[in-house]
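From the shared-data thread, chain only:
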Amino acid sequence: NLEWRATVDRSEGPTVILIPAGHPQARLLIARDLLPDGIGDGSVLLVQVKLDEEATAAGKREIARLQKDLENRSSS
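Structure, as tokens:
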């Protein structure tokens, strides 16, 4: 798991712009409805990121299947 902080820079309609701590030049855009109620400019968020290994494995299998389908189509 990875954990870091980000500050709400501003909102633009349904989008919130975050500045990750320690990366003042970076900007992250995220849908407001994915964030907790009550946040505003200057709010500091604790962000936790975890790799979903099961979903990743399924996604990789699906991508491999799609790539194989494309290869089969192009060789026909």
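The mean pLDDT is 96.
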